[in-house]
Structures are given as structure tokens and as C-alpha cells.
Design brief:
By secondary structure, this protein is mainly α. It folds into two domains: 117 residues, no CATH class; 124 residues, Herpes Virus-1 (2-Layer Sandwich). Helices cover 54% and strands 4% of the residues. The chain has a three-stranded antiparallel beta sheet with strand order 2-1-3. Helix 2 crosses helix 3 and helix 7 packs antiparallel against helix 9. The protein is elongated, with a radius of gyration of 22 Å.
């Protein structure tokens, strides 16, 4: 008599070991994304010390020259958790790069224009090519009506339209996943976030992946191959994650057009 005859399945037709494996797989994926995202340090790469120093000097001269005398920067600072490594102050109208580093909107724009406005800039912290800039404003900054806020948004939209479609390697797709998925997830559940068409596309992708994962018809069946049978599930999860990041990248690039 089979020992599994009296076993209770959490989902009819699906072995409990498969559900445990899927849970561990998804938990491992989330943990890996969190770990990769937290490892990114908010410092300046040694190769960029000189460029950052000259950019910092330019920003200081602008401030002393009174260009931003009407800017509400002092009253709209972040909580102090986000620090811009370029100006060494609290990030104001903060912007996050696709590699997960945060800067003041004006600081990263000035750094880009100081380096080469004709091409994408490399991140001052990790030297990754910045193909996408994501707004990371506070709720007060989102609601504020100021010239600096609008200027940052316009310049960020301009940057994304020009450089977000650059060819990318598989390694770069994986490196961008933690940041892009986090922003996509946040906007998916926010009222003023993604358009319903993109929410629908993402929802269909997630549903299709879930149905495949719980389906007994696998390319590599777990029952026959054991742990090796989860390789196709891992591939499907990463494929869906990358495709969601591509959809979100398209959404961000189309803003301001």
C-alpha cells in the first residue's frame, strides 16, 4: 500500500512537497532581491571623486549665485533617511537610478550635464551605466508646485526618453530587477500609479506564471527529477520578472511625452 494514499494535499492534485518547493523558491527570490538591493552602498566610487567634487563645486556656485533662492528646498526635505552622496546633504526631490542609488534630482542632472549630455551617465557610486532615472519624491514634494520640482521632472523625463531604450545585457537586466520591481510594485498598488492597461498586462503575466507553477504538466516534472525539476520554474519566474521590468521601463520612458 502506498504511504501517500492517506496523505492530505493542501491543493488537490498537487503534492505538498511541490508547494513547499515553490514557496521556498519564491521566498529565495524575494530574499535575493532584497539582499542585492541592500548591498548597494551609498558612497562615491573612487574613480568618480574628481568628477563629483567638480559637480559639488558647480552646485555650490549656483546656490551662492542665488539661482535657487526661491526654491523651497529647506521646507521640503526628506526625513533624513535618504542622503545624496554628491552634495552630502539630505536628498531633495530625490531620484533613484536603475542600479538603486539615490541622489538629489538637481545633483544627478548637473552631474550628467557636466559629464556628457550626449550620452548616458555612469552612476557616481557604482559606475553602472544609468539607463533609467526614477522619481523618489516625498508626498510633500509630489504635492509642491515649484520651478525646481518641474525642472527636475522635465529633465528626468528627457533623460529617460533618450537613454532608457539602450541595448542591455542579461546581467544588466538582473542587476536592475530589485529597483525596477520595487517601483513597479509600489505604483501597481497606488492610485496615481500605472495605467490600467499596464496593470492588466502585469496581472496576466503573474497569473499565467502562477498557473504554470501549480500545473502538474511541467517541462521538467518535479516528481521524476526531484529538485532538478524546479529549474524550469526558476526560469519562468525570472522570465516573468524581467518582462515586468521591461514593461515598467517602457511606462517610465513614455512619461512626459
Amino acid at each position: 500500500m502506498s504511504h501517500s494514499a492517506g496523505r492530505t494535499h493542501l491543493i488537490e492534485g498537487i503534492g505538498n512537497e511541490v508547494l513547499v518547493g515553490l514557496g521556498g523558491l519564491l521566498g529565495g527570490l524575494v530574499g535575493m532581491l532584497i539582499f542585492v538591493n541592500q548591498r548597494r552602498r551609498q558612497g562615491i566610487h573612487p574613480d568618480n571623486f574628481a568628477n563629483v567634487a567638480s559637480t559639488r563645486e558647480m552646485l555650490q556656485h549656483e546656490s551662492e549665485g542665488g539661482r535657487n533662492s526661491q526654491s523651497p528646498r529647506a521646507s521640503q526635505r526628506n526625513s533624513g533617511e535618504l542622503t545624496c552622496p554628491i552634495c552630502l546633504g539630505t536628498a531633495v526631490f530625490a531620484v533613484e537610478t536603475n542600479c538603486g542609488h539615490i541622489y538629489c534630482g538637481r545633483c544627478i542632472i548637473t552631474y550628467w550635464q557636466h559629464q556628457s549630455i550626449l550620452g548616458p551617465v555612469r552612476c557616481p557610486s557604482c559606475r553602472t551605466q544609468v539607463s533609467l532615472l526614477l522619481l523618489n519624491f516625498t508626498s510633500q514634494e509630489h504635492a509642491a508646485e515649484s520651478e525646481e520640482r518641474q525642472d527636475v521632472i522635465d529633465k528626468i523625463n528627457q533623460y529617460n526618453r533618450r537613454f532608457s531604450g539602450a541595448p542591455r545585457t542579461i546581467q544588466e537586466y538582473f542587476q536592475d530587477l530589485p529597483t525596477l520591481l520595487r517601483h513597479a510594485f509600489h505604483e501597481f498598488f497606488s492610485l496615481g500609479g500605472l495605467m490600467w492597461m499596464f496593470r492588466f498586462r502585469i496581472g496576466i503575466l503573474v497569473l499565467a506564471a502562477f498557473l504554470y507553477l501549480i500545473s502538474p504538466l511541467d517541462i521538467l516534472p518535479e516528481g521524476a527529477l526531484g529538485i532538478v525539476g524546479f529549474l524550469d520554474d526558476i526560469f519562468i519566474i525570472f522570465l516573468v520578472a524581467i518582462y515586468i521590468s521591461i514593461i515598467y521601463r517602457q511606462v517610465v520612458a513614455s512619461r512626459g511625452t
